[in-house]
Amino acid sequence: MRRLESSLTGCARAEHFHTVTPLLESWALSQVAGTTVFLKCENVQPAGSFKIRGIGHFCQEMAKKGCRHLVCSSGGNAGIAAAYAARKLGIPATIVLPEGTSLQVVRRLQGEGAEVQLTGKVWDEASLKAQELATRDGWVNVPPFDHPLIWEGHASLVRELKAALGTPPGALVLAVGGGGLLAGVSAGLAEVGWQHVPIIAVETQGAHCFNAAVKAGRLVTLPDITSVAKSLGAKTVAARALACVQELEIISEVVEDVQAVSAVQQFLDDERMLVEPACGAALAVIYSGLLGRLQAEGRLRPSLASVVVIVCGGNSIDGGGLQALKARLGQS
């Protein structure tokens, strides 16, 4: 892989908790896509995912206002980002997680010095508990995805792309959970004058709250999260993410769990990086041939200068976990 060095200054200044992540040209994915594919490697952030951009920014702003205790509900990545930011700020943190959260995530949070509470089956239930704790004096609830400061922090990713690439890509691929990354990237594209760049926003079936909302033209609450991509597991997408559909060219797509997990394995083989199924959903746009189908259907230009895939994170996965997912989905 070829790394594009960014001439960026000021995008991740010393006071920020996120780092300027590598933008790598992937030979393997470019071969599959038939065009140059760049990987924005958010999986190498100090907290393991893109979430540190927005959550780090939010936590710093709350600390300035006198916050004495941070609380966050998370399927994993947001909680790790909040715990990391809290440790850097010297503020205690309580992370509320759904009961099915992987042991390695719980250990990672405890390693960051956070108190961990396990509540409910899905993120929405953990969120209610976090909101209850946040009523205590000096406590602040860290929203995993639905807050303007979160989107403002995530927009830094696009500034880095502009600094590294110079010219806009033909398309940008990202996974959607609660919609924070989509809202932040949309804001960033508008900020750098790249609002014409199409965004392929991908979810897995069973965690497809954004796609359901796009089709209905209004927010939709899923009855349950049935996808293995638990990091995408919000039942309702942020209203701001749905509003972005009116402002930019956003193509909402849904892939099957088996495609996402297959993409995780292929990516591990191709790039020696292990990412979680939520990230596999974005990679499946390339590996499953979805990109080519969108071009054939006229929904994307037949010739794309390049495609950027946001490799969003890899906290909630290990070798054993990948094998277990493959076995569950009937993959050898």
Automatic annotation (TrEMBL):
<dbReference type="GO" id="GO:0006629">
    <property type="term" value="P:lipid metabolic process"/>
</dbReference>
<dbReference type="GO" id="GO:0009097">
    <property type="term" value="P:isoleucine biosynthetic process"/>
</dbReference>
<keyword id="KW-0456">Lyase</keyword>
<dbReference type="GO" id="GO:0006565">
    <property type="term" value="P:L-serine catabolic process"/>
</dbReference>
<keyword id="KW-0443">Lipid metabolism</keyword>
<dbReference type="InterPro" id="IPR001926">
    <property type="entry name" value="TrpB-like_PALP"/>
</dbReference>
<dbReference type="Pfam" id="PF00291">
    <property type="entry name" value="PALP"/>
</dbReference>
<feature type="domain" description="Tryptophan synthase beta chain-like PALP">
    <location>
        <begin position="18"/>
        <end position="313"/>
    </location>
</feature>
<dbReference type="GO" id="GO:0003941">
    <property type="term" value="F:L-serine ammonia-lyase activity"/>
</dbReference>
<keyword id="KW-0663">Pyridoxal phosphate</keyword>
<protein>
    <recommendedName>
        <fullName>L-serine deaminase</fullName>
        <ecNumber>4.3.1.17</ecNumber>
        <ecNumber>4.3.1.19</ecNumber>
    </recommendedName>
</protein>
<dbReference type="InterPro" id="IPR036052">
    <property type="entry name" value="TrpB-like_PALP_sf"/>
</dbReference>
<dbReference type="GO" id="GO:0004794">
    <property type="term" value="F:threonine deaminase activity"/>
</dbReference>
<dbReference type="InterPro" id="IPR050147">
    <property type="entry name" value="Ser/Thr_Dehydratase"/>
</dbReference>
<dbReference type="GO" id="GO:0006567">
    <property type="term" value="P:L-threonine catabolic process"/>
</dbReference>
<comment type="similarity">
    <text>Belongs to the serine/threonine dehydratase family.</text>
</comment>
